[in-house]
Amino acid sequence: MDLAIALDNTLAVPLHRQLYDELRQAILFGRLESGQQMPSTRMLAQSLGISRATVLLSYEQLLSEGYLKTVPASGTFVSHQLPDDLLHSGSIQPNEQAARQPVQLSTYGANLAETEPLIPLRSESPINFSCYGRPALDEFPLKLWRRLLSRACRLQPDMLDYATNTQGYRPLREAIARYITRSRAVRCDADRIIIVNGSQQALDLVARLLLDRGDLVAIENPGYLDARRTFLAQAARLLPIPVDQSGIVVERLAASTAAKLKLVYVTPSHQFPTGVVLSLPRRLALLAWAQQTGALIVEDDYDSEYRYGERPIPALQGLTASDSVIYIGTFSKVIFPALRLGYLVLPQNLVSVFAGAKWLSDRQSSILEQYALTEFINEGHLESHVRRMRMLYDQRRQTLVQALTRYLGSVTILGENAGMHLMVKFHTNLSDEQVVLQAAQVGVGLISAGPYYLGPSGKGEFILGYADLSQEKIQEGVRRLAQFLLK
C-alpha cells in the first residue's frame, strides 16, 4: 500500500528520524489504525525512493517504543495498546479568532439551513490530444465491474430503492475515508464525507451554498475553466492569482484584498493545467493565511494518484486540524468518467446543509454503483488498478516527452512528472487558432491553454492529454504536428 509521507533531503534532520516522526504522527492521528498491517521495509523504501536501511532504523525505533509490533511469519502491525504519551500528544491548533468566526453561508445556503431537516466539446480527430482527462477506458477491468454490479443486484435488492442517507452509502464513505487517510493523508471519517456526482457537482454545491452575488473568490491563473464558470454563474467576482514553478503565488494572495476573500480554489497536488506541485512552504503559508483571514480553501484533488518517480504527495487538507479546507475527490480519472461518483470532505458544521442541497439537486448518486465501488475498494481492486495504470501512463508520458524532443526539439514542457496530461509551449510564429486548425487538418486534436487564463495568456501553450492514446499514436501525432510547426 502507498503511504503519503513528506520527507525533505535538504533538512538537517536525518531521513530516518523524519520518517519516524511521520509514521508516529500517522498513528497519532489515526491515519494508521490500531492493528493495521504496515508495508514491508522493502516496499516502503521503494515507494519513498529511500534506502531500506533508513526504513529499518525508523521501524526499529517505533518497535522499541511500542508503536509497532511484529507477528512472526505475518509482518509488522500498528500496536493495539499504544504508549501512554500518545494520549497527551498535541495537534495543530487553528487560529482561535478565526475558529470562532462562523462560516458565512450564501442566502440560498442560509435559507436551507433554517428549514426542516430534509429526508434523507472535444475534437473528433483520429489522434486526439485534447481529451486531457480521459483515462485508458480499454484497460479498465470491465468484467470484474459487471460481476460486482451483478452481485449487488442479486444480494442487495434494496440497492434499487432510494437512499436512506443523504450523505451517500455509508459503507462507501467508510471505504473512501480509509483510502484517502492512508494514501492522501486526509484527516476525516465517514461522517464528514458526502458522495456527489463527480467533482463538478461538488464545485456547484460549494458555489451555491457559500457564495452570494459579489463575493470575491481567488483562483489559480491559469486554472480549471469549469471551476471559473461555476463561480461566475453564482455571480462571484474572481481574483486571478498567478502560478509559477512552485504553484500558486501565496505572496500575491496575501498582498491582495485578502480580508474580503471568501474562497480560494486550488489544485495543489497537480495544478491544472500547468501540472506543477504546490511546494510545502507555500502549502503552510496558504493554510496560515486562511486561518488568519477566516477564508475557506477549496482543494480539488482530481488526479493525484498518478505521479511518476516521486513520493506520494500528502493532501493540503491533512496538514491542518482547522476547518479551513474543503476537499474534493473524484473517481472519474481512476475508474471511468461515466461512473459519476466523487466526494466532498467537509468541516463538520457544513455537512448537514451540503447533504440537504445534494438531496434537493438529484436525490442521490447511483446506489447500485456506490455498492459496486465499495466492493471494488475494499477488495483491493482500486489500488491494484491505480498501480497498473500508473505504470501504463508513465510509459505513455515518457513516449510523449521523447517524441516532443525528437520531432520538435525546441519545446518547453511543464508538469511532466504527474497526472494524465502535459502542458507544452510550442515555439512557432503561428497563432494558437492556426495551430489548432492545421493540427486538425493532419488528423490531430489539440486544445489551447489560452482560455484557461483569466486575462492575457501565454502564446503557443497547449494541453496534451496522453492517457488514452497508444504509444504508436502518440509518436505519430507529434510527428504530424512537426510537419507544420517546423516550417
Task: Furnish the topology, listing elements before pairings.
Layout: H1 15-28, H2 41-48, H3 52-64, E1 68-71, E2 75-78, H4 96-100, H5 107-113, E3 127-128, H6 142-155, H7 170-183, E4 193-196, H8 199-210, E5 216-221, H9 225-233, E6 237-244, E7 247-248, H10 250-255, E8 261-266, H11 280-293, E9 296-301, E10 325-330, E11 342-345, H12 351-362, H13 367-378, H14 381-408, E12 411-414, E13 421-426, H15 432-441, E14 444-445, E15 447-448, E16 461-465, H16 471-485
Parallel strand pairs: 3-14, 5-6, 5-8, 8-9, 9-10
Antiparallel strand pairs: 1-2, 4-11, 6-7, 10-11, 12-13, 13-16, 15-16
Structure report:
This protein is of the alpha/beta class. The protein has helices at residues 15-28, 41-48, 52-64, 96-100, 107-113, 142-155, 170-183, 199-210, 225-233, 250-255, 280-293, 351-362, 367-378, 381-408, 432-441, 471-485, and strands at residues 68-71, 75-78, 127-128, 193-196, 216-221, 237-244, 247-248, 261-266, 296-301, 325-330, 342-345, 411-414, 421-426, 444-445, 447-448, 461-465. The strands form 4 sheets. Strands 4-11-10-9-8-5-6-7 form an 8-stranded mixed beta sheet, sandwiched between helices. A 4-stranded antiparallel beta sheet has the order 12-13-16-15, covered by helices on one side. A two-stranded antiparallel ribbon has the order 1-2. The longest helix has 28 residues, at 381-408. The model has no long low-confidence stretch (mean pLDDT 87).
